[in-house]
Amino acid sequence: MHERNELVTFYQPIFCLATDRYIGTEALIRWQHDGRLMPPSNFIDIAEESGLIVDIGAWILNDACEQTQLWHHRSELATLGVSINVSGRQLDQPDFPQRVRETLELSKIDPSTVTLEITETTLIYDDPRTLRQLSALKELGVKIAIDDFGTGYSSIGYLRHLPIDTIKIDRSFISQLEHDHQTAAIVNTITTLAHTLGMKVVAEGVENVRQLEILRVAGCDWVQGFFFARPAAVVDIEEILAATPYGSNVADDAALLPPQ
Question: Whole-model pTM?
């Protein structure tokens, strides 16, 4: 894939509810094949099974860090963060922290602006190797996020001991916020738990104003989703960030978005 230059990195903005500003992007991979642009759902599982995900993951880590460092040369984007997904197979590689170190050094990016997202279901909370890998990554200065939180079987006891900076609430919860009081209560509980442990909370999959209002009241820190922007190529994301500069109002942002 990447040898044939068929991989493309898309980005989706991440919005801060406290400041009404874009504070980062999530890097999302796409595969250009036979004239079609395929989402990860079409090939990631196969890549995981074959082991190709290790090389694909290394490619997107490098590409996203290089692009974000380029954005840092623009004053209005100088502190923009980037979140990058890490597969369980990558995390299992003994030399993975060293590979991340080399990528950070080559791209010359500030490690504190990089967040590595690890899916909750891939974490083995009582495995000393997991703790060693996460600790080694934290020593590099990057941040660690648990992605798709709520879809696995997290133990609060183990969560308390992991070097996690951010919990990312799965979109399946966000989609039910307006219709199910129990789901809203769960989101409130997750947010309170995360803040008690000194972690930030990101809600993904936000699609309308009502969801945004509920998350704001719940104290959620950051949000992303189609309400703000669909994942897009670099040039389109730059236009979105330029059209809705730091400090813009959410209501104004919403008027700029295409219908869902």
Answer: 0.89
